[in-house]
Structure formats: C-alpha cells, structure tokens
Design brief:
- The N and C termini lie far apart (about 45 Å).
- A hairpin with a 5-residue loop joins strand 3 (about 95-100) and strand 4.
- Strands 1-2-4-3 form a 4-stranded mixed sheet, with helices on both faces.
- Helix 6 packs parallel to helix 9 and helix 7 (about 215-230) packs antiparallel against helix 9 (about 265-280).
- It has helices at about 1-55, 65-80, 115-120, 120-135, 140-165, 175-210, 215-230, 235-240, 265-280, and strands at about 60, 85-90, 95-100, 105-110.
- The protein is mainly α.
Length: about 350
C-alpha cells in the first residue's frame, strides 16, 4: 500500500511539474518539464535524504561522541525490529527532530541540540520512537521526495517570470500562464505536502507510543516542542520551508499548527489522541501537559531498561538534560562532539 501511495504521489508531482512547464512554455515546456521531473525523481530517490540533512546542517554522530542519544535510538530500533539508522545532530536551540531515507536499511534520524537539552530522557525517547515509526511505515521516502520536488516546483514558479511569457515560446496562455505558474505552483506543492504529512503524523504518533511504551511521554514532548518552536527560530528551516513537513512539529516560526494551511495536524488534537491511547492502555492522562510522565510508574518500562520517573510539577525555563550540559554526551566518554 505504501509503495502504491508513493507511486501515486510521484505521478501527481510529475503531472504538476508538467502543468507548470506547459503554463510557462507550452507543449515544448511540458516535455522539458517531464524530462526534468523524471531526472528529479531519480535523483531524489537516491540523494534526497542527503540533501535534506545538508539543508539543516546536520552532523552525523555515533556512540563515541553522542553516547546517550545513540543508545536511545539503538534500543528503540531494536524494540521496533528495525535496522539501526544513522544518527545526526543539528546545532540548533529549537527543539525538533525528523527522519529521512529511502528505506529502513538506509534511514537516518536527526535531532536538534535544543531537543536534547530541553526534554527529559523519556520524552527524547518518545520523539525518536515517533521518527522510527515513520521509518517503519516507509513514510521517509515519500516525505523526503515531496520536500525535494516541492522545492523544485516552487523554484520553477519563481523563475517563470524570467523564462516564460515571450512571444516565441509557444505558450498558449502568454503572460497570464506565467502568472498562474508563479502563484499557483508553489501553492499546489504546499497542498501536496499537507496531504502527505497531516494524515501520517497521527499514525506515527500511535506507533511511536507503542515502540517507546508510554503515549504520555510523546504527549508531553509534543507540548514542549510546540512551545519551544513558538519562542525559538530555526534559520535553516526558514531558508528551506519545503522541508517543514518532515519535522515532528512545524519548525517555521510563528506558524499556527491548527490553521487550514498547516503541514501538520493540530498539536492539541495529537496530544488528545495520545491521552486517549493512554486511557486505553490503563494510563492516567491528567498529567500529560507538561508532565506527561507522571503516570509512567504504571506504564511499561522503556526498551532501554529505565523505568519512568515522575516529572516535576512545572517545567523550568531550561531543564538540565539527563546527560549534563553537553547535549552530545559526557565529555569523558570519547572524542568530543562537534559542539563540545
């Protein structure tokens, strides 16, 4: 089913690409756009994950320079029955994370230093379990390709004014077609991004809660991340808005998560779904925000062998992470991390 959905999405994005080409250059522009889209699809399949990681200045880490983070991902991947993905850190104070890769065997998960600094051990685990759920559902290929093609379509629309609309380009719509391409193409690409991301986040939330063992950990993490995004900018994401749907929470500053054009479903709705899941599992959702782990004593222990501890009654301004001030791990645990 996921393979069929990916194929249908690629066909839709290719058709959109061809439509923009037709508006800009007529039949000749449509053929050129078709060839360009075919090349983009092939390139995106093999390289889109690397591009997304590079766009966000992600640095690969391992058990030597990020031991705690790497150990959490390793234990969760084993719990989910997945190959160990590559792990990346983004030197950014905004708490957020995403997954990418064309299949589980070539997957990568990335977390910001802000996520590791501001969330508890259990909340970090819940976030990474959510990202591994995307890997397991094979959402990462689709979402990464969409990010690449949406960016290309937006770029094509922006260049339409300079390369379209002349009398000798066989464009039946003239300057009107160019204007339509400039205005509609980026909007249509955004609509496709929304359709891909919004429906899959709920599924990844549920599966991620199953992997980490406690829906309330993820509920608390979502609340903290959403509040962090409101206060802290992510310059890399602002420069590359086509990748916003990859993150667990929309990283664009000031973006309301419950509006009609959001790439993500409402955070409140996602938390409510997780609280309902906790009730079904026998948890107590009353303390889900901001101390979702208050009921974790009754929930299964996490796959890393550490039972949950009750959260403090209120979140401090910058809570100390469980591994100390250095978000990549203890300074004496091996070579220094990239931001040690």
């Amino acid at each position: 089913m996921n393979t069929l959905r990916t194929a249908m999405l690629l066909a839709a994005m290719t058709a959109l690409f061809m439509g923009v080409g037709f508006l800009i250059g007529g039949s000749g522009g449509m053929i050129i756009a078709l060839l360009f889209a075919a090349g983009m699809n092939l390139f995106a399949y093999w390289n889109a994950d690397k591009m997304v990681l590079r766009m966000n200045d992600a640095v690969e880490v391992d058990a030597r320079n990020a031991p705690e983070f790497h150990a959490i991902v390793e234990a969760l991947a084993k719990q989910a029955g997945l190959p160990m993905p590559k792990t990346y850190l983004i030197n950014n104070p905004q708490p957020n994370a995403f997954a990418t890769g064309r299949n589980p065997e070539n997957a990568a998960v990335a977390a910001s230093t802000g996520l590791l600094e501001r969330l508890s051990h259990e909340e970090v685990a819940a976030v990474m379990a959510h990202e591994l759920a995307h890997v397991q559902h094979r959402d990462t290929l689709t979402m990464t390709i969409v990010a690449t093609l949406a960016g290309a379509i937006s770029m094509l629309g922006n260049f339409a004014f300079f390369f379209g609309g002349s009398r000798d380009n066989n464009n039946p719509f003239g300057f009107v077609g160019v204007l339509v391409a400039m205005l509609v193409a980026p909007f249509a690409a955004m609509i496709v991004q929304m359709a891909v991301s919004r429906t899959r986040e709920y599924e990844a939330d549920r599966r991620g809660a199953e992997i980490c063992g406690n829906p309330l950990w993820l509920a608390s993490a979502l609340d903290k991340i959403a509040r962090g995004v409101e206060r802290i900018r992510n310059p890399e994401a602002e420069r590359n808005p086509a990748t916003a749907h990859l993150f667990i929470i929309n990283p664009l500053h000031g973006e309301r998560m419950d509006n009609l054009f959001s790439t993500h479903p409402s955070t409140e709705n996602r938390i409510a779904a997780l609280e309902q899941m906790a009730r079904e599992m026998g948890g107590a959702p009353q303390a889900a925000r901001p101390q979702a782990s208050a009921a974790a004593d009754e929930a299964p222990a996490g796959p890393w062998g550490k039972s949950a501890e009750p959260a403090p009654p209120a979140e401090p301004e910058r809570p100390k992470p469980p591994w100390g001030r250095n978000p990549t791990g203890p300074r004496g645990a091996g070579p220094k991390g990239p931001w040690s």
